Amino acid sequence: MACYYLRMEYPELEDYLLAAEAVLGIDARALARATDLGLAESALAAPAAGFGDEEFYVGVATKAAILCSRVVRNHALVDGNKRVGFVLMLDFIARNGAVWTEPAGGQDEIAETIRQLAASELAEPLFAEWVARHVAAPGDNDFARAQGGDQPHDPTKGGDAMAAKKGGSKSSGKYRSARSGRYVTKKYGRSHPATTVKESK
Questions:
Q1: Which CATH class is domain 2-153?
Q2: 3-state class percentages of the chain: helix first, strand second, coil last, to nearest 5
Q3: pTM of the entire structure?
Q4: Which parts of the chain have pLDDT scores under 70?
Q5: CATH 1.20.120.1870 in the chain, residues?
C-alpha cells in the first residue's frame, strides 16, 4: 500500500486553470492573469505535504478532501472556488484509480456540504470523513463493489475534460474521449478505458 501512495498523481497549476476554465467558461490564459496563483499553488501542494518521509495526509480520499478544502478556502479565484475545488477533487480521485460514489442526498447534499466547508461551518477533518465515506480506493475491501455499479463517478465530468485539453493536438490520436470526442493522451486513455475510445489504425 505504501508503494501505491508514492506513485500518486497530484494536480498541477495547469490542471487548476483548465478546471476553472471548464467551470467558469473563461479562457485559462485570462484566468491566469486574474487569479492569485500563489494561493492556488499553495492549495495544490497541500495534499502532498509532509515532513521527512512522513506524509501529513495519507490515502486517496484524505488527500482529495484536503485538495478540495484548500482550493475552496484559499479563494484564489474571484468566483467559482467551490465548484473548481470539487471538480479537482473528483479528478484527483479518478486519476489515482479510486472510485467516487455519489452520496444518497445527491447533488443537493454535495452542494450543501461544500457550502458548509467554504463557510467554515464544517471542519476539515469532518469533511475528510464525509469524502472517505464516498470513495473506494485500490486495496479497500469495497473497491471492487464500487467499480461494479454503485454509481461511480464518471471521470468525463472532471478529469476527462482537462486531460483532453492537455492532450490536444499533441496526442497521437489513438484515444478519444467518449463524451467530448476530443483526443486525449495515451496515458489517460489507457487508464480510463470506460470513458475513452481507442481508434483503430
A1: mainly alpha
A2: 55, 10, 35
A3: 0.70
A4: 1-6, 138-197, 200-201
A5: 2-153
